[in-house]
Amino acid sequence: MTDDERAIRELVDTWLSVSRRADLPTVLSLMTDDVVFMAPGREPFGREEFAAAFAGLKSLRIDVRSDIRELQVLDDWAWLRNHLEVSITPPGADAPMRRSGYTLTILRKTNGRWRIARDANLLTTETAPVPP
């Protein structure tokens, strides 16, 4: 594994860790100023919309499992395909909401640090199996 691949994997681990703690300043430091996020059913959005939505996560318990399936580095650009399993539990809830699926993330190395530049989130809500 190259130093760049290791640094990108550490970025993903850091992102997940600080997201669990709702540490917005650290999350923002992991993305470029011109970051674009894409999610099903909505228009692409940037850093400001991300920050506003992220602020609402403080009262939630979030657990995330990540499995990077592909990672390629091309000079100062990289991309990764990641499978995520997310469990979100609001205060007082009996059961968590579960989402899972893939993300496709493009990263750019700026000032010697890898940062997220584009992220396509394809997670969908998991549903309980219907009894026979």
Keywords:
single chain; 132 residues; alpha+beta; Nuclear Transport Factor 2, Chain: A; six-stranded mixed beta sheet; 25% helix; 45% strand
The whole-angstrom Rg is 15 Å
Identify the overall geometry: globular
Given helix and strand content, the structural type is alpha+beta
Kindly state the percentage of residues in helix: 25-40%
Mean residue pLDDT: 91
Number of domains: 1
Q: Might you state the CATH topology name? A: Nuclear Transport Factor 2, Chain: A
Number of helices: 3
CATH architecture verdict:
Roll
Biggest beta sheet summary: 6 strands, mixed
The H-and-E topology, N to C, reads as HHEHEEEEE
**Unreliable stretches covering 5 or more consecutive residues:** none
| Proportion in β-strands | over 45%
Termini separation comes to 47 Å
Q: Quick one: how many beta strands?
A: 6
CATH class division: Alpha Beta
What does it look like?
It is a single chain. By secondary structure, the protein is an alpha+beta fold. It has a single domain, classed as Nuclear Transport Factor 2, Chain: A. 25% of the residues lie in helices and 45% in strands. It has three helices and six strands. Strands 1, 2, 3, 4, 5 and 6 form a six-stranded mixed β-sheet that branches. A hairpin with a 7-residue loop joins strand 3 and strand 4. It is globular, with a radius of gyration of 15 Å. The N and C termini lie far apart (47 Å). The model has no long low-confidence stretch (mean pLDDT 91).
